[in-house]
Amino acid sequence: MELTNPFPAPAALRGTLADGVDHWKPRVQALAQEIHAFKEISFEEVRSAGAIATLLEEAGFEVERGTSGLPTAFSASAGSGELTVALCVEYDALPDIGHACGHNLIAGASVAAALALLPMVDDLGITLKAIGTPAEEHGGGKALMLERGAFDGVGLALMVHPVQDGLTYNPTGTSAQAVGRYKATFTGKAAHAAAAPHQGVNAADAAVLSQVAIGLLRQQIPSDHRIACFVAEAGHVTNIIPEKAVVQFECRAFTLPEYEALHQQVRNCFEGAALATGTTLVVEEAEPLYEPLLQDDALAAHWTDAMEAFGKDTSRSSGLSGGSTDMGNISQVIPSLHPWLSIPGADVPIHSHAFAALADTPGAYGVMFEAAVALAWTAAAAASTPTERDRFIKAAYRRRTFTQEGTS
After folding, report:
1. Cys bridge to 86: 67, 154, 247, 403, which one at CB 3.0-4.6 A?
2. What angle do the packed helices 362-384 and 297-309 form, to 10 degrees?
3. Residue 354 CA to chain centroid, in angstroms?
4. Global pTM value
């Protein structure tokens, strides 16, 4: 006897979901434009988070503000189905240059998709969550929220990220690098720079030597590894030998073993500089580790199918050469999709003033809404395809908890 699929055929839902996105376009575009204008940086996204949460609440979501103990996080929920679908919403900007990574478009796409799916949660048998995740640029909001329970029970997680024009819309095989960020503090000894410089221990010299060593190291690392650093402090006046110097640095690689090896090589550069100058060195983690991004093949196939309907290039990609996201932490434990959204005419690098301007153009908002439809179609297809649905239900995230008796 053939079993009947109780859920709507994915293709039959497409028109309804597209109409749902279309219905919310004026409100969501106004929201995305507001977020772009706010330019709120990590953990300071008070107005952005508030505006998004208010819209979702007005639409019928049950909204929790301050999720995971983070004032600018939220979780909006609807439905009570066995499968929990999460749409991640980002909205932090970069210092000084604003939304040069297009997080206003990420927010708009996820919110529009959530609003389109809202009337269908019962038909799809899902619990739908739009999770506001602050501090993606710096601070690892998703990593913190994952640790603190905001993603408990989630079976699949989705979002989209804008990039330059011309990149494929097929996320299969693409990834993002692990990144760890640190603060290295050298401590020396102050002395008069003219009367008794020989009695001082120059911490600024250690900062210089560490940068020289890192510069020479770059020749010896694979081409897809990245090291970046800057001197945050190294003295204040010319007539005092600097007794303190601080260097902020980060390491990136596409796998965790490669990342750990690179991190050790860079640490050696700092330790060698301390040894050479007679300073002491303390290295502290500045942010949670961002893990490599894993794309779920089934979700990628649904997304690619949807983007083909919009006439987008869905040829296979050779992957991206750099960049990191705390969505990588989610993807390591929950089936996830983080596809790329090409802004028309964007021939400038992300994290630039020019890209920030392009993220607030009609063309950008046009593809934002196409992405919203594709995200909604992807979620609906995953929920209504029995074999995939069962896999995602079984994949629901459960944190390990630690007790006196052990791990559960």
Report:
1. 154
2. 130
3. 21
4. 0.93
